[in-house]
Amino acid sequence: MELLPRSPAEFGSARYWDHFFRQRGQRAFEWYGAFPELCPVLHKYVRSRDKVLVVGCGNSELSEQMYDTGMCEDIVNIDISDAVIRQMQERSGSRRPKMSYLLMDMLQMEFPDAHFQVVLDKGTLDALLTDEEEATLAKADQMFAEISRVLQVGGRYLCVSLAQAHVLKKAVEYFSQEGWVVRVHQVAGKGDNQQFVLPVFVYVMTKFRKIPGSAPQILEICPEEQDKPMRVESMERLVAAVKDRQHYALLCSQLSKTPCREQVSLDLCDKESGKPRYTLHVVDSPLVKPSRENRFAIFIIPQGRETEWLFGTEEGRRQLATSAGFGRLVTVALHREQHYEGMAGIQAELSAKVMELAPPGLPARQQVPFLSVGGDIGVRAVRHRNTSPLSGEYVVEDVKGDGTCYFRRLIFLHNRNVVQSEARLLAPTPLSGQKKRRKDKKKPSPAEPPAAIDKSYLCCEHHKAMVAGLCLLGGPDPLPASLAVLVVGLGGGSLPLFIHDYFSQAHVAVVEIDPSMLEVATRWFGFSQGDRMQVHVSDGLDYLAKLAAEAPAQYDAIMFDVDSKDLTVGMSCPPPTFVEKPFLQKVKTILKLEGIFVLNLVCRDARLKESVLATLRDVFPLLYMRRIEGEVNEILFCQPSPQGRRDPAELGARAQALEGALREPGRPWDSSYVLADMLQAVKIL
Q: Strand 634-639 to strand 622-627: parallel, antiparallel, or no bridges (unpaired)?
């Protein structure tokens, strides 16, 4: 039996609907949104004493259920189909005497002005507004004008809709311009009983007297999980918010039916601020054979550790899911702007939401475990937050790593998943003979991290490789009597500080374009200047160009560890202008003949990376590369003379000799940092 129209225009035809309802017979046809689902929203806006008009009623049971449950009895139903009106009059006439069914076109209603407190529309606007043709939009305007006419001031137009973008936009645009308050409710679905994959929405348009001039629009959205509406500043944002919820519903539907081949990422936002509160990644592991006990689990990433390889990369999360032994693992990252009430609070907050991401075949009422490292949510303390005109918004935060170690990090919030600089914090040292604290003084919290910087520890693997590259310097002695080093890019200052402290013969010059970073490094990362350490606040391009013109061949080592602010380029370190051939020739000019140029390269664009390598080969006849395991970073060691080439055995011997010279008695040294290991994976390009 063919009930669908031949064209969208037939949705507005009385003839089509007469045919539809004759063919369908007495069976109720609910477009979407059954009464139990709509009831919580309807109860908010329909009072028992209200006079209600239902436009395009069809043979839906909605009016009958509102009547029978006592929600409201004074209900007038209209439709353009004579067949369905007669059918509904026969069905309800004697049983519901206060409710009526009338044959009437909603575009030309016969009711007096301000006759109703509520107009209810369930799918009628969606059926009318099938496209954005001029004639269709004119009919929508006519419908809205008639609804406005028959509603009293303070009355509500309730429109049940699937909220296609053009339908929502048209309704919001019309009524907000008329000075009405517009609120959009998402209707809570009933799980497996839902008829549609897409969620159902109810537009609530409340009529106010139009104020002359430009009154501010009041636009709100009320998601299914909360009663309190959220204000949005524009129609575009309201449409976008609805679209986000539709995409989420489609995603949940897809995840409930099939395993995901690619990892899915989504943000759950705070109800009050609208800012991201949780970032979820859904990871399916094909290597795990799921059973009843290991189908699904949630993993809470401890605060501050979301940037680690295991949690912050696709490959790492895949390995985590396999190691945990679950067919589907949802990792949850916590945001620094939010407050969390421990693991139990997070579990209570997320339990219902994460079940919407459950894999196919998960048994009903299955207990889903929440996992973490050490069973807690970690420690994160924001120490400093500011905005730089050059680097944008940034934070300095202390986080707890594995065991009892704490780390201080600099994060640029335009790229919040990347740690810009990191330093290990020292445990506090008790003072001998220290007097007991007075009883009235507050004891420090056991979760309060220490503040002193451990300058002997290089947190970043690429910094360790860059320092090890000094073994490639020419000359017979692995530790030259004098060492002039130029570092472009300060960050927290860990790299130049380490060279300064461990190479006592080194004179280090640092070029940093952003004066805010010098302040951050000095105040929060233990950086200081002196006779052998000088910072020049300048653009690295300009500074090196000036050096090349005035004082060539003066540095033993030049190191680039400078990030790019342009995230649209597939290379985040360094900025592309720093690896253009004319500038690299200037770098070569200020480098001594037996010196070394060390470049931290972070490039995800394979074609761009090959272009950079080709340019480096053109300028420097000897080129080594060291990939950093588990990271995108690649360290390039470039030498101006091919005579500096060393075989692996000689390189290893120089590394051991240099490390022995650096490990002076009484000087702390990170035992895990072995220079020779850093150079084992170096290859000549």
A: antiparallel
Q: Which pairing describes strands 622-627 and 683-684: parallel, antiparallel, or unpaired?
A: antiparallel
Q: Given its phi and psi angles, is residue 252 left (phi above 0), alpha (psi -120 to 50 degrees) or beta?
A: alpha
CA 175, distance to chain mean position in Å, is 33
Highest mean pLDDT among 288-297, 421-430, 505-514, 663-672 belongs to 505-514
Nearest to 171 by CA among 217, 139, 125: 125
Residue 227 shares a structural domain with residue 271: no
SS3 60: coil
Query: Whole-number mean pLDDT of the chain?
Result: 84
Would residue 445 count as lying in a domain? no
Q: How far is CA 14 from CA 235, 242, 672, in A?
A: 33, 32, 81
E strands, 207-263, are: 219-222, 230-232
Query: Which residue from 177, 273, 218, 229 is spatially nearest to 44, judged by alpha carbons?
Result: 229
Residue 361 lies in a domain: yes
Helix, strand, coil percent values for the chain (each to nearest 5): 35, 25, 40
If one counts every other C-beta atom within 10 angstroms of the C-beta of residue 573, the result is 20
CA distance 203 to 205: 6
Angle in degrees, CA 561, 572, 537, rounded to 5: 40
* Domain co-membership, 299 together with 220: no
Q: Would you say 597 and 641 are in contact if contact means Cβ atoms under 8 Å apart?
A: no
219 in a structural domain = yes
Q: Taking the model in full, what pTM does it have? A: 0.71
What is the domain count for the chain? 4
Do 184 and 220 contact (CB within 8 A), yes or no?
yes
DSSP string, 157-180: EEEEE---HHHHHHHHHHHHHTT-
Phi-psi region of 403 (alpha: psi -120 to 50; beta: other; left: phi over 0): left
Tens-digit pLDDT profile for residues 142-170 = 999 999 999 999 999 999 998 999 999 99
Phi and psi dihedrals of 633, rounded to 5?
Answer: -60, 140
Quote the pLDDT of residue 98: 92
Structure tokens at 79: 């439709």
